[in-house]
Amino acid sequence: MEPISRMKRDTRAEDHFLKRKRHTEIKHSVFQDVLKTSVYIANMSARGKGETFTYIDLFAGRGDFEDQAEGSPVLAFNIIEQHVLQEEGPGRNHFQKTCIVAIDKDTEAADHLRSLLVRRLEKSAGRERGIEVYTGNSNWELYDFEIRTLLSRSKWGFIFADPFSTELDIGKLKATLRAHAAFKDILILANPQTASRQSARGHANDIVRICKSLEIPPELVGRIAKSRELFAAALKEAFSSLKEFTIGVAMPVTVGGRLIKADYFYLVLATDSIVVADSFLTAYEGTVIKERGSKSQGMLFGRGQEILDAFERNNTSNLSLWDIMEDLWDNFLSWKNAIKGPGYEIPTIKNIIDKLNGLRARGKIVFKESEAFQYKVKRGNAEPGNLKYSEIRSGRDAKRIRVQLEK
Ligand SMILES: C[S@@+](CC[C@H](N)C(=O)[O-])C[C@H]1O[C@@H](n2cnc3c(N)ncnc32)[C@H](O)[C@@H]1O
Q1: pLDDT in tens, 171-202
Q2: Residue 234, exposed/middle/buried by CB under 10 A (0-12, 13-18, 19+)?
Q3: Residue 93's pLDDT is what?
Q4: Is 400 helix (H, G, I), strand (E, B) or coil?
């Protein structure tokens, strides 16, 4: 017979394994959606220009898991391979070259990943279509020169940083990217639980790591590590100088239908593209709905209070659609915001537009008749004067549409 204490430990271990498994599934699901959109958007602009797309995985892992699930560098390989093999249709490949860079400091993980990717590339028709793969086995910071060189040769790109805890030095990452950050999307995973545990323990080395992983001074560590909101705000702030949009979302984890943790980890996306930003929130919405089951459907019928709040926060009665998106994306953090009352929702562009049309129908707002908008209306809407999701294809579209609050 097993001692009780041992049995208890086993149960906890199993729970921990399930949590990690769900966490990885959610992370990979959002990661894949955003990377696909990033590749698609870059490819549209690369038409006829012979440009390159570079994917960089700074904390790449071993490439697969015990349950055979694939890790981020292999998932990225699949997405890029599928893209470059596409010869027809709107998504057909325009990149002259695509690079996949995967770095892990753990030798066993890096060796395993390297052999996986070598086999994958050998079998792939993508090799003839300009896919190149680079792997590294060291702290990613030691590849600073190689990363800069690859990024300087590649107009488009995606950088993924997925450390276990507080290993990412944001200042160093920004220094590596700074000159080449334009046209590159950045996705970071952060673990607020480790930060708060490390902060409570108070070891000097850990405090230094937390400071570097959030770009904050030591005197703020205690306060920020205790507050999930401040933690996410610090992360977003760290990337806001690089990109137009930095969106942070808290990821819930449920095991067996039970919510284990509302904000088990954070994902932060930094991008200049509203389409990539929107794909991030749409993927997030998908995972939240899946995690929380049918109950979350209730939040799809709000009345647009969050949009009225945006006017109040900006102290104005006239905002462009872009201003509204920027405000909601800045202020959104978690699905918990989305259910704080009737009318609050995850601010995907589609949800924002549905809400705006609803507010217009109730006489709360009007769309301002700018020339650009009249042009869009003329193209025909089911409900005259309503905005259509398909009309918002770029930041310029969102800047042209103005929304006036009705008194
Ligand atoms: C969470 S795992 C990565 C999982 C992977 N991104 C995935 O989704 O399949 C984090 C990895 O980062 C590696 N690592 C930790 N610090 C690192 C550093 N400074 N540079 C490179 N790799 C590091 C660890 O060895 C570990 O394999």
Answers
A1: 999 999 989 999 999 999 998 888 999 999 99
A2: buried
A3: 96
A4: helix
Residue whose Cα lies nearest atom 6 of ligand 1: it is 60
- Are residues 291 and 315 located together in one domain of the fold? no
Residues 122, 192 within the same domain: yes
Reported pTM: 0.91
Render the burial of 62-94: b for 16+ CB within 10 Å, e for the rest. Answer: bbeeeeeebbbbbbbbbbbbebbeeeeeeeebb
The Cα 187–Cα 78 span in angstroms is 18
Residue 33 Cβ inside 6 Å of ligand 1? The answer reads no
Ligand 1 centre distance from Cα of residue 189 (Å)? 11
Number of domains in the chain: 2
Do 268 and 208 share a structural domain?
Answer: yes
User: Are 248 and 357 in a shared domain?
Assistant: no
What's the gap in Å between 60 CA and the centre of ligand 1? 5
Beta bridge partners of 248: 268
Same domain, 292 and 368: no
Q: State the Cα angle at 132 between 131 and 134, rounded to 5°.
A: 150
Say yes or no: CB of residue 61 within 6 Å of ligand 1: yes
Q: How far is the CA of 102 from the centre of ligand 1 (A)?
A: 10
Query: Domain check: are 332 and 310 in the same one?
Result: yes
- Nearest-atom index, ligand 1, CA of 63: 9
Count of residues in the chain: 407
Per-residue pLDDT of 283-327, as tens digits, reads 988 887 776 654 444 444 467 888 999 999 999 999 999 999 999
For ligand 1, the distance from its centroid to the CA atom of residue 351, given in whole angstroms, is 35
Instruction: Using pLDDT thresholds of 50, 70 and 90, give the confidence band for residue 38.
Output: very high
Is 289 in the same domain as 355? no
Domain encompassing residue 104: 4-299
Q: Are residues 192 and 122 in the same domain?
A: yes
Q: Which atom of ligand 1 is nearest to the CA of 139?
A: 20
